[in-house]
Write a structure and sequence with these properties.
The chain is an alpha/beta fold and 238 residues long. Helices cover 37% and strands 13% of the residues. Helix 6 packs parallel to helix 7.
Length: 238
């Protein structure tokens, strides 16, 4: 996969086709402008190519179990990570990540503690950088500060070198990215789909809807993966 234009060989087009009904429901209920999503993905890809970036080689991560770190404070209870496990941090969860080694991947739309994200990027983490209609200014402002490897991602028609791995929020996108890596077992820590974190009541209601969809997408993915990995291939740890 090294320096390829797009990870075409690993994308599960059948999976993306089957979750399209859920995604259409999300776009409709949250009034998401898919054209703005497309514009964002085009912008990200142009910046990626203008900076002469190359997609990283992922061969060392293929087929390994993954641990996803979510946004709830795990201080003092960070999971013990077995050797050979891929650690993926979901977006703003970098704030509470405190393991000695930087995570292998950070899946983000550039919310949260960006200074910590930039620090991890400079010390070994690959950033799976997501483009959507609401984060165009953040992509413009912060793309150049991500010094480590970047994998552009999108949630619309694929515009190389961006990839649509599936998922909607940073959390469930992290799970879908682990699936893309062929992780036979995905363990999720720091997620609470019933108790969203938001700064205001309107944002809380939107976040609650997003988490509902995140749960629906993860549930669908687990069922889909059971054909290959058996039942309970995705586990939430409270």
């Amino acid at each position: 996969m090294e320096n390829s234009c797009i990870y075409t060989s690993g994308l599960d087009k059948k999976l993306l086709s089957e979750i399209e009904n859920i995604m259409q429901k999300i776009f409709s209920q949250l009034a998401i402008d898919r054209y703005l999503d497309y514009q964002s993905s085009v912008l990200l890809c142009r910046m990626f190519q203008s900076a002469r970036r190359k997609l990283p080689d992922l061969s060392n991560f293929i087929g390994k179990p993954s641990v996803i770190i979510g946004p709830y404070n795990l201080s003092g209870s960070m999971p013990k990570i077995d050797p050979g496990t891929t650690v993926i941090v979901a977006g703003s969860s970098v704030e509470n990540y405190n393991l000695p080694e930087p995570p292998a991947f950070i899946v983000t739309d550039l919310d949260g503690n960006l200074e910590k994200l930039f620090s991890y990027s400079g010390t070994g983490s690959t950033v799976v950088l997501h483009a959507h209609g609401d984060n165009i200014p953040r992509i413009i402002d912060y793309f150049s500060k991500i010094k480590g490897p970047i994998i552009p991602s999108c949630q619309v028609y694929i515009h190389p070198p961006a990839n649509n791995f599936g998922g909607f929020t940073d959390g469930d996108r992290s799970v879908f990215f682990a699936n893309f890596l062929g992780s036979p077992q995905i363990d999720i820590y720091g997620f609470n789909l019933e108790d969203p974190i938001a700064k205001s009541k309107p944002l809380l209601e939107t976040k609650r809807k997003k988490l509902k969809f995140a749960g629906e997408l993860i549930g669908f993915l687990e069922t889909y993966r059971s054909r290959t990995y058996g039942d309970q291939n995705i586990t939430f740890h409270r």
